[in-house]
What we know:
By secondary structure, chain A is mainly α. Chain A is 80% helix and 0% strand. Chain B is mostly helical.
Amino acid sequence: xxxxxxxxxxxxxxxxxxxxxxxxxxxFIAGLFISTNETKTDLGALFANFGQFADIFxxxxxxxxxxxxxxxPLLLETIKMAILGTVIGSAVAFIYSLxxxxxxxxxxxxxxxxxxxxxxxRTIPDLLLGAIFVxxxxxxxxxxxxxxxxxxxxxxxxxxxxxxxxIDPGPIExxxxxxANKLQIIVFAVLPQVITYFISYCxxxxxxxxxxxxxxxxxxxxxxxxxxxxxxxxxxxxxTGTIIIVIIIVVVLIDYVSSKSREALMQ
Amino acid sequence: MDxxxxxxxxxxxxxxxxxLHWLITIVTIGLVIWSCTGIDFGGIxxxxxxxxxxIFxxxxxxxxxxxxxxxGEDLVSQLWETVCxxxxxxxxxxxxxxxxxxWAANTKHKHWYVSRTGKIVLAIxxxxxEIVLALMFIKAVGPxxxxxxxxxxxxxxxxxxxxxxEAIENLDDGPNEAxxxxxxxxxxxxMFSTLPNLMPALISNTLYRFDVxxxxxxxxxxxxxxxxxxxxxxxxxxxxxxxxxxILLGIIIMVIVIDWISGWIRKKLV
Lengths: 267, 270
């Protein structure tokens, strides 16, 4: 073996150059420049004013524990809102998913239209829904429950109808063969296969709802967010810190319990 | 022919399981009933139906003069600003997420407490309300979309780094060992085995996060951190229901388009 050949073997393999990849990189960098320009983001300004930022943070780190007693009732209201929103939203989602699953409803026109409606509902973020419902039904937890219910609906319906569509068609055919009607097919062939998934998705939506409900009060839709807004408005950061710590503890706790029970459910 | 049908054997009864199921059901029902107490459902305004109708009619009769008028305050430029906030915010968070992801990833050659603490830190970042973060950044850099970018950039780390760390945990050790076996250095391992294997997951997760960020960016305006949320809250306050309708329509179209594009890119990646 000559030395040049050996060198060739020792050299690292070259990657193939693709013009498309270069194009993607250019688009990406252009996007970065455009968006930096558009948003006028200047990280220098952040570092220059970092003292202020850190100051708020430090004040929050010295929470005012005496505020705790005031926070607890609204915290309970927040959890209630999350539970109610989840229950209402997932109950509607349950029926809706059965209507848009193509292996149950064979009519493509119906499922198609219902799916477009579902996709539109899914796009609106929770807080915007909250703001709109506050305008519609007035300030209070009802607006929050409605916003959360619609959010839950969006999350659960998508996951659940996909679960329904992937079930084993055998039991459905068997029940059709013995002359069962639609309701019997759903109860005895479809639901036993998907009910654990449904519960798991509801719990998942509940986790998201707890997180969302904590800030809904900020725009007047009930719950602990109300105090968040009040304390931030008067720059009472130690109290804000208390609220945030309470929120974090509750969210992490509920997340943990719910994800553990989801794991247990799926076994 | 024997017409007597055979009786099916009775279902086996697992008493323990049954008790557990009933307990869970009772507790759940109890919780739901408990949540119904204390929430005042009577507070719905009489005008609710009327306002909802006005917003709906706004969706179908858009105020075209607001859609684009070149002033920079119109719908299209606000939506464009929202997209830019989400893009830059996602980019920043993707960069910050990388070290966090390696910290939180539960791999073999690491003490258990390292990844555990990383995971807890990420959980705390995830649970820190985004709006509060936005307000803190507004204090630092002034109101505007820059505060939104930073809030988004830091908040997304919680979720994105979690997804990244899961991708790292799922990495196959084989390619690393292969590169080591033929005498590759640490940089060679990263260049030729870790990065190429990790890249698709990173890009796909970042794109997914971009979808979520678009929704968050349209919320941040509610507290004055730029984007479409601000004109929406103004329109709600001044009861311009037509305008609320058209802004909602704009958000819906924007989110659907972005979802569609990122879904298309993700499909190409796999």
